[in-house]
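Structural prep section.
Before we set up the soaks we want a predicted structure of the protein with manganese (II) ion in place, mainly to decide which crystallisation condition to try first. Input record follows.
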Amino acid sequence: MRLALFNKGRLGIVDGDDLVDVTEQLTGTSTPSAAGALHQHIETVARDGAVQIDLTGCARVPLDEAALEAPLPRPGKVVGAPVNYLDHKAEMEYTTSVADLGVFLKANSSVIGPGQDIVLPYTDKRTDQEGELGVVIGRTASNVDATDALDHVFGYTCVLDITVRSGEDRSTRKSFDTFTPIGPWIVTADEIPDPGSLDLRCDVGGATRQRTNTADLIFGVAELIAYTSSVMTLHPGDVIATGTPAGVGPLSHGDRVVLEIDRVGRLEVGVDGSRATPYEQRPGRRDR
Ligand code: MN
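Run finished without errors. Recording the tokens verbatim:
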């Protein structure tokens, strides 16, 4: 099942070329919280188990007429995996990987959805795309074993982990507003029994920059959940960006970024460099 948010917070199930509006049916409300109707649905499933869905009688909207939004506009946490593909480790000349670095957090306020724009902060510092498989947590996970980890997954989505190449901490460089495009929907885990065999491709400006298969992850999805849950409790609706392969590169004003993951979907966003300012003009004194 593919679940999407559309038309200012409505919750839909993709059915062929249509979106079927199941907002009231799945959330029992027409006014979802800031975390969104899909987040509420994930919490309901975590608490009460799977929900029976009857699509008869629900309103339908043609998919190409619906304004899709980030399926999770404000996740509780966005966890990132640094250096989780060997080819990206090599291109960046890193000597360590996720196994040494652990995980990092991105601000949940950095999330945007399909069709929106990544806003470049600086005129003179690279801002790069990183195309990644996103994991959406479905059940509270604390100290879970890798063998049980996939039972805690609600589904999968495409995530762009946008990153400024400057000297700050990762949580700063990756947390600018608009730096976490997510979508176009969440595919439930039953449709992807093995997240370790998915082709991933990321194009920028019509040229393919990144191409991999999730089989090449250093920490696969189960291992990444097990490790992360040994540090922090993962809650329903939390998102893990699993890491990026080789081929990261700078974004420019007007670029289109397209991330396509086998059996998950295709996420496309734009790039807006019109508000970028020189790095030296950022706030804060630098004389001490
Ligand atoms: Mn990344």
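Observations: The pocket of manganese (II) ion is lined by residues 80, 130, 132, 161, 241, 243-244 (CB under 6 Å).
Flagged for discussion at group meeting.
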